[in-house]
Amino acid sequence: MSKASIIGAFNTEFGVFVRKDPATGLLSDTKTYYDLLVEAGRGAIQDAGLEAKDIDAVYVGSCSPASFLNQEHVAPLAAEIDPSLRFKPMTRTECACASSTVALYDAVYAVEAGRYKNVLVVGVEKMNLLPTPQMTHVLSCCSHWPSEGSKGMSFPMLFAEYAKGYQAQHQIKDGEFEDMLFTVGALGYKNGAENPLAHARKGPTTVAELKALCQPDERGRSKNAMIAKPLRLHDCSLVSDGAAALVVTSTAAARSRRKAVEIAGIGHSVERLPIGVRPNMHELMGGKDAARKAYAEAGIQASDVDFAEVHDCFTINQLLSTEALGFSKDGRAGYDYLDGRFTREDNKVAVNLSGGLKSKGHPVGATGASMHALVYKQLVDEPIGVKAKKAEIGVAFNVGGSAVSNCVSVLRRLK
After folding, report:
1. Which of 282, 362, 372, 407 is catalytic?
2. Which of 156, 196, 204, 382 could potentially form a cystine with 228 if both were Cys, beta carbons 3.0 to 4.6 Å apart?
3. Domain boundaries, the chain
4. Distance (Å, rounded) from C-alpha 48 to C-alpha 303?
């Protein structure tokens, strides 16, 4: 099979790009969905050393723009990146939080088929124009609505089921499990503090700080309140606005370029949507299958991976992802994090050097493209934030929904 490679990438800053009128409470844009899409697309094309006329097609990943900002049919917005993109084919993909990884995969398939030479992939989401209850409702539509969303189950609740299942399966005591989750969260904030594009750059970077935030203030309020037991506020990723983009071409064409990274293996495995019909809630079965497929296609093992960006939408999912990718044995990821593994100093594999979704931010439709952009930048020696000790092979593990759409990509530096 012919292969595809990434030859350019761009990540906008992630954050809250709205202002609130103190008198009316109404929210307005400071950087729009349209601005973010154009910024990312232009940046990736420039990074690839191409002109917009060299792009043959565009794939846009976006989770729920109609609900977040009343805009459907978003793929044609890519024509605003440059006039020469007019009349080019443009397609939107939707796969919840994996929307832009699926866009990337569609671009890869098109390049490998020989249909297109250069393809632009953009992931974008604008979440903060909605008040929290409405935003939570939009995201709940990515669950199984009859059995979950319509019953009031939010995504913190869904992943809390994984947390409870994992803790019970491996017989981990409450205090020890809390320390595991806090260690993961603190590591994300520590790495994110050095990412100039991160949404949260001043988060609590130690377990002690996170524990202190659990204590109620004089009004009885906690800055690390329980959201869905055992998950607290700081176990949850951020509600972010942002975009990221990639340019994909054939590996044969990429070999003449200085900054090229091969998409060496892909694993796309979809779990059943309702959590109630799954055999268990203590492992990412779909994630393990996706990793197996991606590693087999790339001809590698977990021990060959130098660093990874994993989908820590909740701290429990970082533990589950670490095990799904084979970096820890089942039930051991939390202990490995407690032992200081997966940091920038780790001689085996570093995890979420960007700060992850916990600190970098999680504009849902942009997350997959962002993870791949960050891995790409590490592999071409242009890291955004903390630099990997070794950067020859990187992995992006992006999840859509409650661990439903599992996408594992193996990226390898082209020699």
Report:
1. 362
2. 156
3. 4-132+239-245
4. 30
